Amino acid sequence: MWQDNNSQYGAAPTHNSYYAQSPSSADSNTPLQFYGDQNQFYPGSRPSLEGNVGAQGSIGATGNIPAYGGNIQSTGGWWTAFGTGGFEGEPPLLEELGINFSHVQAKSLTVLNPWQRIDEHIMDDADLSGPLLFLVCFGIFLLFSGKPQFGYIYGVGLLGSASIYTILNLMSEQGIDAYRVTSVLGYCLLPMVGVGALSVMVTLNGSMGYMLSLLSILWCTYSASGIFVTVLRMSDQRLLVAYPVGLLYGCFALLSIFHVGPDTSKVVG
């Protein structure tokens, strides 16, 4: 039995709802036809979408949905992962990680030209990206020359940085943190990295190697002591600062000249 929906729920249908014709008023062979307030739906026909407005704009009679808009950049090469990621105002990934190539270049040029005037605020933005790069390059060069000294480089660098940190804090009034001490010592290792690169092509266990190693020790010591006395404002104590720093770089020079550890070149049968 057909029951009227209005009497069942006790409310009249809304203006936007659809309702069916009563079977008594329609032919039994004719399927049910549903009517709306504006559009009619018949079997095999397509409703009109004109006038419907969505989140992306109006939909035409053809039913084509407009394309999405926005300021999304197209994907590029693998190097775009180190950029801003396509978002405006977003800092580069390397900058968020504390790697700034312009600062590394400026500090490296200061080490390579120690006779220029050193800015006392040069280590305000101390970092370890440059020192770690130089230490890895130094170890790789020694490895190519037949001297795998990675463990000794790490040990000498760690012990030397702790010793220099203690000495500088005992000598200066304002003091310096271990992070900046390690950064200065790592950047000033750059001339020693050049000696390690020469050890790949020529043998340093000779008079020429000794002279180059001595020159690199003096160069590294002069650069590091200059930065320390400028930052800590202790120019009258430069020789006292240069002495332990020179001993540290002397250990790195010995690693680049001599082979430390067991000799693996001879195989005992």
A few lines on this structure:
The protein has 269 residues and is mainly α.
Task: Give the secondary structure arrangement, pairings included.
Layout: H1 5-9, E1 19-20, E2 34-35, E3 40-41, E4 53-54, E5 57-58, H2 93-96, H3 101-112, H4 129-144, H5 150-171, H6 178-187, H7 190-201, H8 207-232, H9 238-257
Helix pairs in contact: 4-6, 4-7, 5-6, 5-9, 7-8, 7-9, 8-9
> Low-confidence parts, pLDDT < 50 over ≥5 residues?
15-21, 53-61
- Order of the strands making up the biggest sheet: 1-2-3
Biggest pleated-sheet summary: 3 strands, antiparallel
Question: Can you tell me the overall shape?
Answer: globular
Specify the number of helices: 9
Beta fraction: under 5%
**What is the first-to-last residue Cα distance?**
105 Å
**What is the helical fraction, as a range of percent?**
40-55%
Structural class: mainly alpha
Work out the radius of gyration: 38 Å
According to DSSP, the number of beta strands is 5
Region (Disordered): 1-37
Pfam families: Yip1
Keywords: Membrane, Transmembrane, Transmembrane helix
Family: Belongs to the YIP1 family.
Description:
There is one protein chain. The protein is mostly helical and 269 residues long. The protein has a domain at 129-136 and 150-258. It has nine helices and five strands; from the N terminus they run αβββββαααααααα. It has a three-stranded antiparallel beta sheet, with no helix packed on it. Strands 4-5 form a two-stranded antiparallel ribbon. It is a multi-pass membrane protein. This is Protein YIP. One of its GO terms (biological process) is endoplasmic reticulum to Golgi vesicle-mediated transport. One of its GO terms (cellular component) is Golgi membrane.
